[in-house]
Amino acid sequence: MSLIYRGLRKALFSSLNGIRHGRLDVVDQDEVTAFGEFDSELRATIYVKNPLFYRYVATGGSLGAAEAFCDGLWECDDLTTLIQLFARNSDTSDRLGKWGNAIANLGRKFTHRMNRNTRDGSRRNIASHYDLSNQFYSLFLDETMTYSSGIFASPSTSLADASRAKYDRLCQQLQLTASDRVLEIGTGWGGFALHAAAKYGCHVTTTTISKQQLDYAAAAIASAGLSDRITLKLSDYRDLEGKFDKLVSIEMIEAVGHEFLDTFFAKCDSLLKEDGMFAYQAITIPCQRYESYRRSVDFIQRYIFPGGFLPSMGAMNASIGRATDFQWVHSVDFASHYAKTLKLWRSNFNANRDAILSLGMTPSFLRMWEYYLCYCEGAFLEKQIGVSQVLLQKPGNRRPIALPGLTEIGA
Question: At a CB cut-off of 8 Å and minimum separation 6, what does 354 contact?
Answer without folding.
Answer: none
